[in-house]
Design brief:
Blueprint lengths: L9 H5 L1 H6 L4 H13 L1 H19 L9 H53 L4 H7 L1 H5 L1 H7 L2 H9 L9
Helix pairs in contact: 3-4
Length: about 160
């Protein structure tokens, strides 16, 4: 297809009415003008659109019914009332969402406080095991002793007495 038969793109075709009315931005208007200057096919599309607009001006204009204004105002009032209802629905939804966020935050804070209490206040059972590790290491030997009476006998036996110089 030669440059003189170049067609308008769908975007340029959509902007033709604005181009004819002079409402198109300068950059887009310049692009369409350049294409129209070089393409006879594009010029025919613009001429067809201009003829269509002229023919539309010859059609009879419809008359609005007499109660058109009253119906329009009634519809506007109804929509305004629905808008107020919509706003109240949205605000109640936002209140519910805020309440849910608050409850979630309080739940997390309560969980965190419980965790800290368990960590710092509640006794740690492993700490006792660490303190009594020497006893646990020699537990079998202590079980072999049997009772404190045997240990008392050893302490009182002169063979186990330490010599003092």
């Amino acid at each position: 297809m030669g440059p003189d038969q170049q067609r308008l793109t769908p975007l340029e075709r959509a902007n033709l009415a604005a181009y004819i009315d002079g409402e198109l931005p300068e950059v887009e208007s310049q692009a369409i003008a350049t294409k129209l200057a070089h393409s006879a096919t594009a010029r025919r599309e613009v001429e067809l659109l201009e003829k269509t607009w002229v023919l539309l001006d010859h059609l009879p204009r419809p008359k609005a019914p007499e109660d058109f204004t009253a119906r329009t105002l009634t519809e506007v009032r109804r929509l305004a009332t629905e808008g107020i209802q919509f706003q109240s629905t949205v605000s109640s939804g936002l209140r519910r969402a805020a309440r849910a966020v608050l409850y979630t935050l309080v739940s997390f804070l309560t969980f965190g406080l419980g965790f800290l209490i368990m960590k710092w206040v509640w006794p740690d059972p492993t700490a006792r095991l660490v303190r009594e590790l020497p006893i646990a290491e020699h537990l079998d030997e202590f079980r072999d002793v049997g009772s404190m009476d045997f240990l008392q006998e050893i302490v009182n036996d002169p063979a186990f007495q330490a010599e003092t110089d």
